[in-house]
Amino acid sequence: MKTKTILILCLFLLTLVQLTGQRRGKLVTVSGTVTDTLMAPVDGALMIIDGESTGVQTRKNGTYKLKIKPDTRSIGAYTTNMGSVVTLYDGLSVIDLVLDGRDMMPGYNPETPDGEKEIDVGYATVKKRNLTTDVGYINGQADENSGYTNIYDMIRGKVPGVQVTGNKITIRGINSLMLSTDPLFVVDGIVVSSIDNINPRDVKSISVLKGSDASIYGSRGAGGVILITLIDGGR
Questions:
Q1: Could you give the CA distance from residue 64 to residue 44 in angstroms, rounded to a whole number?
Q2: What is the pLDDT of residues 172-187, one digit of tens each?
Q3: Is 3 helix (H, G, I), strand (E, B) or coil?
Q4: Is 2.60.40.1120 the CATH classification of the domain at 28-110?
């Protein structure tokens, strides 16, 4: 009798563990609305989960719907002209977001365990180990980059597929008969026409985007995008 009771208890515990595992693996639905500071709906905002693009964009009325894992840590939204907003996921099924023109919510800093680098991909920062696309990256703080006096020399030969001739940068693999093949320059989130006057010593990092990663900038990113982050805004 005692053996039978123990067997039943073991079967019960095994079933409970299996059900718990199924719940953890089951996707949950999260929906909401993305608006600006005047509460106007934002159309076409790119939705971000844990720093990675989902490919889902908000509708004309600003609404979105996502299927996410229960252990998701953050949900965000991004547009090229209004920046990004990120909030921690706390299990709620309805999450509304407000884009206020800032890159991140105040006080939010994605964790970077063991000094793992985070790469700027335009709509967010993504842990290097989680990148699924070929994003060129230059760490401006590395000792090997400390001696440059010219931003173009700093980029030359550092990223595969990026050709630097004098003050002209071309990202190979970009072909367009109708659009410019010159890359778009974005410095600290602001589109600029030239990077000639940037001091390499002020550079924190450089990311090179092309293909689908650059598509968030529309036709302006047809020739690829070079994202430059400065130390304290260039001091």
A1: 10
A2: 765 544 455 789 998 9
A3: helix
A4: yes
